[in-house]
Amino acid sequence: MHDRLYLVDNSTIITEAQGMKDQHHAGNISIKNPKIFTLDNSDLITSANRGQGGNVDIEAVTIIPLGNSKIDVSSAFSLNGKLRVNGIELNENFEPLSPPEFEKELDFDDRCTALRSKELSFVITSRDVLPPTPENLRK
């Protein structure tokens, strides 16, 4: 398994069919098994003119879309291709969530600021790592 795959600074992977016949289909793009796949101001394009758009299939532990990145599986006059991410097919109505916006900057070096903030929480979910009582947290 590859550790990381980065597409950055206007990189493009493209399979494009500009032919004028219905059988001129775009090719497919498969990204398989990187731990981290970053698409930063870059594009994955499998578009076609008369034929079908190609498919994009991404399987990665972590997918990080940044900047003005685009995945296009379209066809101008035929069927669009399919976009699958970790086995889930996404349709054209899919919109990724925007990263959260914070109203104020927190200075995490200042412990008092972090303690006063009601926006923060800390949860331990592993077993066998909690102290027997809350008083033992300070030890």
What's the shape?
elongated
What is the arithmetic mean of pLDDT? 77
Order of helices and strands: EEEEEEEEEEH
Reading side by side through the largest sheet, how are the strands ordered? 3-6-9-10
> In angstroms, what separates the terminal alpha carbons?
42 Å
Description:
With 139 residues, the protein is mainly β. 4% of the residues lie in helices and 27% in strands. The protein is built from one helix and ten strands, in the order E-E-E-E-E-E-E-E-E-E-H. Strands 3-6-9-10 form a four-stranded mixed β-sheet, with no helix packed on it. The longest helix is centred in the C-terminal third of the chain and has 6 residues, at 111-116. Residues 120-129 have low confidence and may be disordered.
Q: What's the layout of helices and strands?
A:
Blueprint: E1 4-8, E2 12-14, E3 29-32, E4 36-40, E5 43-45, E6 56-59, E7 62-66, E8 70-72, E9 83-85, E10 88-90, H1 111-116
Parallel strand pairs: 1-4, 2-5, 3-6, 4-7, 5-8, 6-9
Antiparallel strand pairs: 9-10
What is the gist of this entry?
The chain is mainly beta and 139 residues long. Helices cover 4% and strands 27% of the residues.
